[in-house]
Hints:
42% of the residues lie in helices and 18% in strands. It is of the alpha/beta class. The protein has three domains: 2-11 and 194-277, Cobalt-precorrin-4 Transmethylase, domain 1 (3-Layer(aba) Sandwich); 14-97, Rossmann fold, CATH 3.40.50; 99-191, 3-Layer(aba) Sandwich (Cobalt-precorrin-4 Transmethylase, domain 1), CATH 3.40.1010.20. The protein has a four-stranded parallel β-sheet with strand order 1-12-10-11, with helices on both faces. Strands 3-2-4-5 form a four-stranded parallel β-sheet, sandwiched between helices. Strands 7-6-8-9 form a four-stranded parallel β-sheet, with helices on both faces. Strand 6, helix 5 and strand 7 (140-142) form a beta-alpha-beta unit. The longest helix has 17 residues, at 13-29.
Amino acid sequence: MRVVQARNAGFCFGVRRAIETAERTAREAGGAPVHTDGPLIHNAHEVARLGRLGVHPCADPAALPAGATVVVRAHGIPPARRAWLEGLGLRVVDATCPRVAGIQRICREAAAAGRRVLVLGDAGHAEVVGLLGCAGPGAAVVDGPAAVEALPDPGAPVTLVSQSTQAPERFRETADAVRRRWPDARIADTICRATRDRQGELGELAAGADAIVVVGSPESANTGRLASLAAALRPTVVVDSAEDLRAEDFAGAGTVGLTAGASTPDAMIAAVRARLESM
Length: 279
């Protein structure tokens, strides 16, 4: 089978930086355990690899001894949680994606100016939780234009930001709905370039393929969004690893387009490609 791979597939800048930060911290620890506040990224295979280097997710930082090292995940955390971690006497190493940190800064500045922040995003996602923690009282998560229409009037000027991995078209629709209700709203398009490039390539990829394979973790929001957009263009198969591929899913397909979520290791993409090419 012929495989055409997207130019932008696999680790984005923020994920790669977080992994390099964790690896460097582990080396500097000289064999002492290093902990992450929850999974560093949304990919179980990469988290397991880091575990072999001495970097482990921690479900309960309060159980760690004072002086232990905790790495903040790529998605960021609320300021109150960081203060809590530091209050426990832990050494905190920040691996927040700089793009996410920039969105957090916009949220803090809007809150300080008395504005109400709306976040286009997935409620409960780690990045969104961190943004809300920066956005102050009255901040709200919306998942699209309908949610904007249903909001009570906040009684203050509005600022709209986006979770970094949302679909650009969804953001445009949501921004239009915000402007209709609050013409003086401030709109900050905070979708990262890696997301735009990855999603923007799908049309070109689909044009030359009979099917699309998306590689990524089930926990990865950006992988799920990529798969949803791909499925609107071509029959799409989502896999976490090469072992998940089944030949019967590609009956009649001569060419397959291959892309991957932002938390997918290069080795995983290469293994999936090799398996497809062997079919």
